[in-house]
Amino acid sequence: MALGKYSRVDGRKSSSSYCSTVTVVVFVALCLVGVWMMTSSSVVPVQNSDVSQENKNEVKTPVIESNAENNNDARNDESSKPAVEDNGPRDEGQQKQFEDSQGDLPEDATKVDNNVSTNQVEKNDNPEGTEKKDDVLEKKEDGPKDESENAAKNKVDGEPQVENKESGSGETKANNSDDNEKKPEENSVKTDGEKGEAQVVEKEENKKGEGQVVEKEENKKDEKTDQGPIEKKDNPPEVFPSGAQSELLNESTTQNGSFSTQATESKNAKEDQGSSQPQNQNTYSWKLCNTTAGPDYIPCLDNLEAIMKLRTTKHYEHRERHCPDNPPTCLVPMPEGYRRSIEWPTSREKIWYRNVPHSKLAEVKGHQNWVKVSGDYLTFLVVAPSLSMSVPEVAWGKRSRVVLDVGCGVASFGGFLFDRDVLTMSLAPKDEHEAQVQFALERGIPAISAVMGTKRLPYPGRVFDVVHCARCRVPWHIEGGKLLLELNRLLRPGGFFVWSATPIYQKLPEDVEIWEAMKKLTQAMCWEVISITKDRVNGVGIAVYRKTTSNECYEQRSTNDPPLCKDSDDPNAAWNVPLQSCMHKVPVAPSERGSQWPEQWPARVGKPPYWLTSSEVGVYGKPAPEDFVADYEHWKRVVSNSYLNGLGINWATVRNVMDMRAVYGGLAAALRELNVWVMNIVSIDAPDTLPIIYERGLFGIYHDWCESFSTYPRSYDLLHADHLFSKIKKKCNFMALVAEVDRILRPEGKIIVRDKVEIISELESIFKSMQWEIRMTYSKDKEGLLYAQKTMWRPTEQETITYAIA
């Protein structure tokens, strides 16, 4: 340092006292000049912060770095403190709506979150100078806050934010070069006691790439929602799990090995992702699907080319799934005059006719008065069925929670049972009655387009508490009772089959024949007749059967007809498995699923099933019961601390929800207090946790996301994809999944994606190319969250799907 240099000069002796006096005076003057220069160098960065506040097009990142480098001097300079701390109160007010208050989080959860970031720094840094290290981190965080505030100010003034972000990166590099010129002189004045702080500053600078991503995401959020920044050191929003639950976010652990969550990410990788993003936006072009089905296009059900090649349609093969080899990547058009769906519960009684412009069903079923066209609306008659009065053992909403409604029509039965705390999976084919499942979904009632044809339904065995079929025309008795035996596979031991059909109460020869055949078949299946009654409203007959709970009846039959299935036949195997005319034995071992009835609702939703044992390893690597509980606690925290408050979602507009990768169904369980229902999807190549989901009183379906889902376009208000896109990218057509998401999501519907940062960045570009609104992006430790909303935009250029043209 200059001081040492002149000290050595001062050590030279002179023979003249006069010269010695002059030398001392000069030395003192030079020392004062040196002190003044040091002081002015520490003030310069603070002055730069004032300048950058005045210039709206500059970013505060240089101020952060300068403050970090000169932290020791800045803390001793009282005049510099207001410039750093002045924005605190305003930033705090902007942050509240995106962050959870101290009271919203458990005390231990807050501590864990704070300790994670602190401990990561402590493990990597010198223990010396701990207090200084915390100061550096605090002042570093002021930068993004100021930038978000400046972004909001720019928005008011009408200045483009994207240019600010790009110029911000350039200014950072330029200012870094200026700072580097000062470092040799500044480093020479650091004492041994300040080395710990120097190391912290250096490591914090290495994180600059990560910080830039956060700044861009915060600015983007300000442009869309004006809700302030999401980055905060204390009480961060629960978009990611805390330290104690960090393993839950890593859901690929069980399939892809350990998941790395490093504190410091590669700066070069971040810059590569950032530089490639504008290029990606220009490469995406979208076209409108030109098909015979038009706005109702379901790729796997409207593959007309494959349907025309079928040898027979005797067993409704033409209503089964026939997925194209190359799934479409175009966007499905909307009906003319489409409007935002009516909110629940009003939607149960009426929907916009233009949203589902089909009148044929109303014409065919008009005499039954349960669906009519009334001006701009389709109206539905919701009549309370009296069957619950006739069978007290069913105990709707307590013992019986999950119901399968076969041949559901417009699903009024399922709509009524919501008031009884019953979830009903309504099922019907895409048939000549036009879009009856689409009517159900538009009303806010769960439904799937499927048919009981030649294959098993995509559900595990022994999961439904009740199976219902009203005004039922399904030929249960033919071909050895193959279709009824499929219901036997799906029904829990002790579960009920509620059948309403003309053979029960009419005496026409055909009806009498069917009734006699059904009596013989159900007796051979060991089903017990609970009651046969007539509905008090319409006089329709209702027969209620109960499935046996033991194998004794099977063993006492005089003939093995229907036969028992082979022991090697897995009742849970349901993806493209042919139907068989056989029955599976009833589980009897105390630890086997199906040997006991689940606990009553709602107790069953939060407790691990009795058949999950600690000897089994769960999805996240813990003993299965612990895994279940940890997953549930994780999603309860995420929902209560982030999804319900932090994202700005108006939940009154959300009714139909799909969890595209559900695992244990924790998200659905955490949302159960809301007026929503969640379709839980378990991928066919993922751990088979769907029986667990049903055991806790929820429902779902197996699916392969390399194919189209069996639902109509514009079915869901909210999609949730937790580490799904990264898996699909390695497996099949990534863009086809994006197009499928657009197909099943309603206009103004929302999607929450949790995935790797590079996937989040790519999806953000893709969604922007589709004119979607990016409401929020967030990244941390190579993990990211994206919250976006679909708009009414549709492309004008068309793409003809040849295999979907009649």
Helices, strands, pairings?
Layout lengths: L1 H9 L6 H38 L6 H9 L1 H6 L4 H5 L2 H8 L11 H18 L5 H28 L3 H27 L7 H12 L1 H18 L20 H4 L3 H4 L10 H17 L4 E3 L13 H5 L41 E3 L7 H5 L6 E4 L2 E4 L6 H4 L11 E5 L5 H6 L5 E6 L7 H8 L3 E3 L14 E6 L12 H9 E10 L1 H4 L3 H16 L3 E7 L6 E6 L5 H5 L67 H20 L12 E4 L6 H5 L6 E7 L6 H6 L4 E4 L12 E7 L2 H7 L2 H11 E12 H13 L3 E8 L2 E7 L8 E3 L6
Parallel strand pairs: 1-19, 5-6, 5-8, 6-7, 8-9, 12-13, 12-15, 13-14, 15-16
Antiparallel strand pairs: 2-4, 3-4, 9-11, 10-11, 16-18, 17-18
Helix pairs in contact: 1-2, 2-3, 3-8, 3-9, 6-8, 8-10, 8-11, 9-11, 11-14, 14-29
**Percentage beta strand:** 5-15%
Distance between the termini: 85 Å
**Strand tally:** 19
State the share of residues found in helices, binned by percent. Answer: 40-55%
Rg result: 33 Å
Number of helices: 29
Shape: globular
Enumerate the spans where pLDDT stays under 50 for 5 or more consecutive residues.
1-16, 40-282
Largest sheet entry: 7 strands, mixed
Structural class: alpha/beta
Mean pLDDT equals: 75
Strand order of the largest sheet: 7-6-5-8-9-11-10
